[in-house]
Description:
The protein is an alpha/beta fold. 37% of the residues lie in helices and 21% in strands.
Amino acid sequence: MHDKELIVKNWLPRYTGTALEEFGKYILLTNFHNYVHKFSQIFGVPVRGLDRPMQTATNKDGLTIINFGIGSANAATIMDLLTAVKPEAALFLGKCGGIKKSTEIGHFILPIAAIRGEGTSNDYVPPEVPAMPSFKLHKFVSEKIVKAGVEYRTGVIYTTNRRVWEHDEVFRKKLTDLRVIGIDMETATLFSVGLVNEISRGALLLVSDVPMTPEGVKTEDSDKQVTAKFVDLHLNIGIEAMTDIGTKGEKIKHFHY
């Protein structure tokens, strides 16, 4: 198989245990298996791929959620594999570390762009190309956040391949100098590879820790608290936004240059 289309049509089912015809036209992406299981419980649908690297669930309205794993390499992989089903849009429900003092645990961030510090996206586009979401997708998401009566922030996310950095003063100063609002490991890659593959894409990030202070570094206990307090709302906003787009049928894909 030397043709990309043949490869992804074979590999998407192989990675997910889900037949191509079972995928919906709208996609929620996440790093966490509990999001997929919560989705399956809400809609009474099965979870596919429990024995595979990625798990999925799809409701009757044509909305699919996928747990693609952690990190920029996995983010690039799923955005490549999704070309097998040509979705109308993909929204990432991820967690991030809040960098600015104005970001608190439980806040939502709709990133206006992401800095490509991960390196993976360099295999797809030149370094000068900004990693950006699809504006009209974020418009739908922002409306749902406001409707839910919760606070959200906008700003630039720094995406890194480096998972353990909290101890590194030089790296921490770099984040401050870059004026980023948060840090994660996937957003810039999803935006960049989505651009290349002509997939409308966005991200709704939940601030799960504030790692610029020693007491704010994520632990198992603190992550459980974040999950208990905010994950249901995070998932529900994503579901409502993507369902609304599908119902209205509004075109959200960018024009070609």
